[in-house]
Specification:
The protein is about 40% helix and about 35% strand. It is of the alpha+beta class. A hairpin with a 4-residue loop joins strand 5 and strand 6. The longest helix is centred in the last third of the chain and has 37 residues.
Length: about 280
């Protein structure tokens, strides 16, 4: 009995250890997934039309102690043309942006903010200036507007570097890179005419068919008018025959009912001993 109790206790402890280990692993995985720092390219749609401009956003999530940022975006210059750039640096001016502005000038130091359409590349290098505090949280880095110029596919390849705010006890006191993940995107450009071409054919065909059918309908309607008396006379004969059959059928049913009632009465009288 003691050995059985010991084995049960050992099994119970083993199960408890396994459950606690799994819970710890799951909590660690959840915490790590929530703390992952990500820069990514966001598009409202991955399918666009030639000649209709669209805007992409490069955003940043879950960052801590950020002081400097560098992003490089590349695309296919034969398919997309970058037309404008709107940086979102300094949350005092852009509440949905990143980095803090300094009270001195410049409020945000932008070392590079250039588009090179020939090679399909955009580069941004910027940093906060003392005495601005470091930035933590989520925000948008930059918005870029593109004009689709030709049909085809274009990747939106993103490279990024993030730098932290060096603490006073760091020796030497320099910024260090912040580990993170960069997520790319892509778009497909199609012609607008391919989607609009079926529209005029579908609207024009019904009118051509409807107009000739309305004209022959008027003479055909007069032909059945002369034949209507014959159509009303022919059904009268079968209707009279049906009425006669119905009368006979009702008479047969009444006779059967009367005979059935008479038989029932005779049976009851026999049971009472009358016959």
């Amino acid at each position: 009995m003691r050995t059985m109790k010991k084995s049960r206790l050992v099994a119970l402890l083993t199960v408890l250890i396994l459950v606690s280990t799994m819970a710890t692993c799951c909590s660690n995985q959840t915490a790590s997934s929530q703390s992952t720092i990500i820069t990514k390219v966001e598009t409202t749609s991955n399918s666009v039309t030639v000649g209709i401009s669209f805007t992409i956003t490069i955003s940043l999530t879950n960052v801590q102690n950020l002081y400097g940022v560098e992003v490089v975006l590349r695309w296919n210059p034969t398919v997309l043309e970058a037309t404008s750039v709107d940086t979102q640096l300094g949350i005092e001016s852009y509440p949905n942006g990143i980095l803090h502005e300094s009270s001195s000038s410049p409020t945000i130091f932008i070392a590079e903010n250039n588009i090179t359409q020939n090679t399909g590349e955009y580069r941004l290098v910027a940093t906060s200036m003392a005495p601005a505090p470091p930035f933590s949280g989520n925000g948008n880095i930059v918005k870029i507007t593109f004009n689709p110029i030709n049909e085809g596919n274009s990747a939106l390849d993103l490279e990024s570097q993030l730098s932290d705010y060096p603490p006073t006890d760091r020796d030497p006191r320099i910024s260090l890179p912040i580990q993170h993940t960069a997520q790319d995107s892509s778009v497909t450009v199609t012609q607008e005419s391919s989607t609009q071409s079926p529209a005029p054919t579908s609207s024009s065909t019904p009118t051509a068919v409807l107009t000739p059918t309305l004209e022959p309908s008027t003479p055909t309607s007069t032909v059945p008018a002369s034949t209507t008396p014959t159509l009303t006379e022919t059904p009268q004969q079968p209707q009279d025959g049906l009425e006669i059959r119905n009368v006979l059928l009702m008479g047969v049913i009444i006779v059967i009912v009367i005979a059935t009632i008479a038989i029932i009465l005779l049976v009851r009288k026999q049971k009472k001993g009358i016959f």
